[in-house]
Amino acid sequence: MARTTSARVSSAFRLRSSHGNFFLAKKGRIHYDCRMSVQEALEGTREAEILSGMEESYRRIDEKQGAWKHAGAPLCIEGCGDCCTGFEPDILESEALYLAAWLIDNEPERASAIADGSYRPPEGRAQGTCILFEPHSPLHCTAYGGRCLICRLFGYAGDYGKDGKKRFRPCRFYPEDKLRLYGMEHRQYHEDELRQLYGTLPPAMADCMQQALLLLPGSSGETEPLREILPKTIRRLQWILLCTGGRNGGGNAGPQSA
Ligand code: SF4
Ligand code: SF4
Predict the structure, then answer these.
(1) Fewer C-beta neighbours within 10 Å, C or N terminus of the chain?
(2) Helical residues (DSSP H) of the chain, grouped into ranges
(3) What is the pLDDT of residues 18-37, one digit of tens each?
């Protein structure tokens, strides 16, 4: 399926590759139309390596959480979005790249609006809430497939205690009566107890963060608020897509003046 995204530029230019990538400046905006995903189109770049690493990292989280849920751990309450309310994640470059690529692939118009500053976040969000949160939808997250690490881990991840063993505390927003249905209460559970209850353990936040950090050699783990890092990361990907338009298409190697 062809994907289209756009970015504002100061002057018009055009680039076309033999595999159907197409870039056309119109009213100061570059439009990117590609039959490949961002990751495929960027093959061979550092960004594609990070995207592939994050995909694998998120796949492993899904796998571990799947086993944890399947074993009978408390499931999120339908329509609940309390963990996003009044919250905005601070994210790593690797998380921002994955989210930006997901938006370009799946929500190209919105990706472009976020990149050029014309995006208006959903109304009715509590103060300080993530710009991707939609309070009126039961799913709430409008970038679910690209969401960040903490968004994937909240409610379904543990940490390590001083003894080096895993611990788990149920989500603090979970109603007490519903938690009791799972045989749990609002307290910390130690690895041994968890094994007895479920026969398996949830993923640990620190391990998942470490995997995301390993994809950024030389980084000391700096994070930025999502609303700040996302626009510039989308612009960066749009620009690399333009400059590498011929990389996979076998055509032009970079933008050309019209
Ligand atoms: S990205 Fe989605 S899940 Fe994460 S804080 Fe924003 S709205 Fe919530
Ligand atoms: S983690 Fe807790 S607050 Fe977040 S959606 Fe699940 S139940 Fe609701």
Answers:
(1) N
(2) 38-41, 46-70, 93-106, 108-116, 149-153, 176-180, 191-198, 205-214, 226-243
(3) 334 545 545 555 555 666 89
